[in-house]
């Protein structure tokens, strides 16, 4: 893919984005506010996901391992043993 067609493709994507968000109807100052708000929200959601998704995955994994441990003890015939 050459540079000219890549430039045209990126411009086409930008036009599609403006059509989908109806931002082509906005004035320049409205576009700045709109894009600033959207980028801020995207950054905040990404940062939150970066912080909390690993914690949730770790907790779910520990819960799953605890369930396997309880099932193994139950199946081994030691139901009176405390976990």
From TrEMBL:
Q: Which Pfam families does the UniProt entry name for this protein?
A: SPT_ssu-like
- Please give one Gene Ontology molecular function term for this protein: serine C-palmitoyltransferase activity
Transmembrane as a keyword of this entry, yes or no, is: yes
The pathway is: Lipid metabolism; sphingolipid metabolism; Sphingolipid metabolism
| Protein localization | Endoplasmic reticulum membrane
Give the record's membrane topology.
Multi-pass membrane protein
Q: Which residues cross the membrane?
A: 32-53
- The primary location reported for this protein is endoplasmic reticulum
- Any one GO BP annotation for this protein: endoplasmic reticulum organization
The organism's superkingdom is given as: Eukaryota
Has keyword rRNA-binding? no
Any one cellular-component term (Gene Ontology)? serine palmitoyltransferase complex
Key words, A-Z: Endoplasmic reticulum, Lipid metabolism, Membrane, Sphingolipid metabolism, Transmembrane, Transmembrane helix
Write out the similarity annotation: Belongs to the SPTSS family. SPTSSB subfamily.
Q: What's the protein called, per UniProt?
A: Serine palmitoyltransferase small subunit B
């Amino acid at each position: 893919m050459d540079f000219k067609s890549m430039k045209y493709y990126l411009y086409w994507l930008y036009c599609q984005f403006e059509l989908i968000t109806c931002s082509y109807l906005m004035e320049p100052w409205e576009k700045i506010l709109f894009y600033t708000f959207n980028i801020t929200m995207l950054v905040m959601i990404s940062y939150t996901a970066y912080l909390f998704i690993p914690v949730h995955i770790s907790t779910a994994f520990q819960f799953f391992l605890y369930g396997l441990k309880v099932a193994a003890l139950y199946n081994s015939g030691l139901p009176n043993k405390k976990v």
